[in-house]
Amino acid sequence: MAAPVRSMNNPSGITCNTTSFQKKSRSKLVSIPGTRPSVQNGQLLVSTGVTSLDYVIGGGLAVGTLLLIEEDRYDSYSRMLLKYFLAEGVVCGHKLFVASAQDHPDDILQELPAPILDDVTSPQPVQEQAQSSDPDSADDMKIAWRYQNLPKVQTALASSSRFGHYYDVSKTMSPDMRQASKCHTFYLAEQPPVESTATSSMGEAYTDLLKTIQQVIHQQGFDGSAPQSKVRNVLRLGLHSLGSTLWGDDLCCRENPIQSHGLTTFLYALRALLRSSLSVAMVTVPSHLIQSRVLMGRITRLSDTAIALESFRGSEKETNPLYKDYHGLLHVRQVPHLNCLVCEVPDTKDLAFKLKRKQFTIEVGHTTAMATPSPPLPSPALPSPPSASLTNR
Amino acid sequence: MFTDLNSILNTSPDNFKQGEFVLILDRKADASFLVHHFLSFYLRAGCKVCFLGLVQSFSHYSAVSQRLGVSLAQAKEKGQLVFLEGLKDCLGILLPGGTKPERPTLDFFSPQCSDLRGLFEFVLSSLSPAGGAGGQGDSGPESLRPPVLIVDDLSVLLSLGVSAGAVLDFAHYCKAHVCHELKGSAVVLVRCEEEEEEEEEGDEQGAEMLLKGLTHQCTLALQVQGLPTGYCRDIHGQVDIWWRGESQQQNHRKVFQYKVQDKGASFFARGTSSAVL
């Protein structure tokens, strides 16, 4: 997985530096739009589209890894995360691959949130200051007259090196923008029936999907088979609701499923494909339907990053005043260990999400409210849990 | 290689016990840092190592070992390390129309095969003193040091459809061959999914059976758990070290808490973390 990162030394990545001083690693790594190297281990990261989620999972999704999302009941918020993930790919110019058995992938793509591109610099006041001191904009700064004719490169660099965008979920992305990006779709119901070859213990649907992914990766040159001159790009795979009955899987119906190895084998093979290519996948799984916790644990282990969404909708927590500010809880089940011993350790695991009018955000939940899994009736003086004093140090 | 752990286990690369069957298991925590410890430990000690890397890519292990001061690529070139990269090799079997590998090492991916004979033959051929896998010329220094088998991890085989019985057979064969015949050592990682109490259902029995069987076979068990009091940023969990032997003195256990760091891990007695004191 480190191999594709190192081999991406595109010398044309930085063309606009005006001094001879530059960080050596930067010129080596930053060549694909929408990516940045991790501070910790040099992995190439892409954004999930939700900036707060990037922060929670350690800066972003490493290319070549698999993000598992345990769906909330009704699949509303996990579906939103999937759309964020795909929309970020469109904005960054990445290639997309959408697979679904339930809704047509084109329907999912039509619902992508609209990016807020106007206030690109607003969350970064530091860069705004840098721009205001830009020689082009400061007319009265005669001392810098000789730089006036230089191309205005500072702002371009700032906007291209921006990591993650903001989206307005109340609007959908314009069709022109959506169609500008290349997207492969896989809709199970439209797949031609294949003769059962039984080469693996995966189900037919998973075998079919895996083969399609492998073909896309190979033909588009994401596995490094393309010549060096071609501009490298990242493939984003969004796989919706794997493990549900529509994929021909009986994980959700029985406690002892017959094909209990289908999904795990698929995930293993998918991970193998991802590791050897410039691609990153987001997989959602209806975990509340899967009866066996052991199976769910195995699915988690076979993915790299795993988060679970627990929506308050329909649960008794919805009416609990302690949770009134949020729409659900976010559990970080697993953070990846990639090329290093220690993984990104979050400060706290008490996280909650909420869907504002235009934006999905993740926040650190109020400790007293989150510490107890099912809080009793709110008494005026809640005893502070012992973990609170520990985390404060 | 973590010096803290070496002093706890009373070993060093120059002087270590032979014939050990080490079981690493984890619950609600990640014990893979111990695999990296043992890999760098035995490579430092000059043993011939056969590493079955089923869950991560070679570059991952190589990058971590680099931080621990051991170069896997060099060891591989020298013939000291035989590395099986499961992620790379499985695609040929799992994808229809893929190129089938010639050797039956990863046959367990296909539904027709129910045992791990191919995998064991791989271990056999890579660790046997005569010839070895590549048949490198410098078998002289190798024969001095006992061979070592490291598996990361065994429980992923259950996810791939291998029965727990077959995995236990494999472990038993490996123990008999590596630990007894060749007087070497074996290190095996097993990851458990859930709490011990819930073990009634059919598939769960497989995982529990594997765990019990391996715990019975091992000579040293390192059980990594999350803290019972919950998540903490400064203490990553605790390790229950269980020495198993015939006599009562040999059979004892100790619990340490640990924190994984950038280039190692520190182990300390319970409650003595620098973050608490």
Automatic annotation (TrEMBL), chain A:
Keywords, alphabetical: Cytoplasm, Nucleus, tRNA processing
Compartment(s): Cytoplasm; Nucleus
GO biological process entries: tRNA processing
Any Pfam family: PAXNEB
Record GO cellular component, one term: nucleus
Skewed-composition ranges (Pro residues): 373-386
Record carries keyword Membrane: no
Role according to the record: Component of the elongator complex which is required for multiple tRNA modifications, including mcm5U (5-methoxycarbonylmethyl uridine), mcm5s2U (5-methoxycarbonylmethyl-2-thiouridine), and ncm5U (5-carbamoylmethyl uridine). The elongator complex catalyzes the formation of carboxymethyluridine in the wobble base at position 34 in tRNAs.
UniProt protein name: Elongator complex protein 4
From TrEMBL, chain B:
Any one GO cellular component localisation term in the record: nucleus
CDD domains per record: Elp6 (cd19495)
Keywords: Cytoplasm, Nucleus, tRNA processing
Compartments, record wording: Cytoplasm; Nucleus
Pfam hit, one: ELP6
Superkingdom of source: Eukaryota
Pathway(s) served: tRNA modification; 5-methoxycarbonylmethyl-2-thiouridine-tRNA biosynthesis
A biological process term (GO) from this entry: tRNA processing
Matches recorded under Gene3D superfamilies: P-loop containing nucleotide triphosphate hydrolases (3.40.50.300)
Family: Belongs to the ELP6 family.
Name of the featured protein: Elongator complex protein 6
Organism expressing this protein natively: Coilia grayii (Gray's grenadier anchovy)
Taxonomic path: Eukaryota, Metazoa, Chordata, Craniata, Vertebrata
